[in-house]
Recover the amino acids of this structure.
């Protein structure tokens, strides 16, 4: 039996990058996936791809800066699949560059998506898991996708790093609050991967120098996150809560 068979997972930021890969992987592991993002055409393409591979997924428009939109996404997912037992708060953005040049509108956008949106997603998921009570014996999981930049500073990513550090602390704090409800809360801290949020930088000379300084001299494959996510959502991780798991191809060792 697939490790996530019978589970229902809502994931934000599913239209591209890490979220898209994880949605495919979760469906391949047997989960029913509520794939949420703002770009509906890309979500529809993802769901068609998953269905073509024999998986089960549902596309739902969702802007994580809008609490009502998040609630609507959970409503739609529950109407389709029943109670959602796992939530992955993955949506994230960045405006890279020196902190002194960051505009207020860019600051607000990063905070709204990466921190406020992550909190609202987790809050709505936890409320519904608590309300469901013991109606299901499925493991209850909330997973934040943070970053190694939430654990160490990086020039040119001050606010992004601060939001990811905030997400790591959210996982720890919510793990304390939700432990008695059988809800495990963790953060995953990936390294740099080939996604559209960083592609331009790593095609530059500065980006290439950064890659050359890492132990394996490469961007980490996105697929390398899949096993860690499957584990943290699985029954096998029942005693794992309030932790931040680094999966970064050794980048943070440099």
């Amino acid at each position: 039996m697939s490790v996530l068979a019978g589970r229902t997972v809502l994931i934000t930021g599913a239209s591209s990058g890490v979220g898209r890969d994880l949605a495919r992987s979760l469906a391949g592991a047997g989960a029913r996936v509520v794939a949420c993002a703002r770009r509906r055409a890309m979500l529809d393409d993802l769901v068609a791809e998953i269905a073509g591979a024999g998986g089960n997924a549902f596309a739902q428009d969702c802007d994580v800066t809008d609490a009502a939109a998040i609630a609507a996404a959970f409503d739609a997912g529950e109407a389709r699949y029943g109670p959602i037992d796992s939530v992955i708060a993955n949506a994230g953005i960045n405006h890279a560059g020196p902190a002194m040049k960051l505009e207020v509108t860019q600051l607000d956008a990063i905070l709204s998506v990466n921190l406020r949106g992550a909190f609202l997603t987790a809050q709505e998921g936890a409320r519904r898991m608590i309300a469901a009570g013991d109606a299901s014996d499925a493991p209850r999981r909330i997973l934040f996708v943070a970053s190694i930049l939430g654990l160490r500073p990086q020039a040119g990513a001050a606010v992004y790093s601060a939001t990811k550090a905030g997400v790591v602390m959210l996982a720890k704090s919510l793990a304390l609050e939700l432990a008695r409800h059988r809800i495990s809360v963790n953060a995953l801290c990936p390294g740099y991967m080939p996604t559209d949020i960083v592609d331009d930088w790593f095609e530059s000379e500065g980006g290439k120098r950064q890659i050359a300084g890492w132990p394996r001299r490469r961007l980490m494959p996105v697929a390398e996150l899949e096993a860690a996510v499957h584990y943290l959502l699985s029954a096998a991780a029942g005693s794992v809560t309030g932790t931040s798991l680094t999966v970064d191809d050794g980048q943070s060792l440099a």
Remarks:
- The first strand starts at residue 8 and ends at 11.
- The beta strands are 8-11, 32-37, 56-61, 86-89, 140-145, 183-190, 244-247.
- The chain has one domain: 8-247.
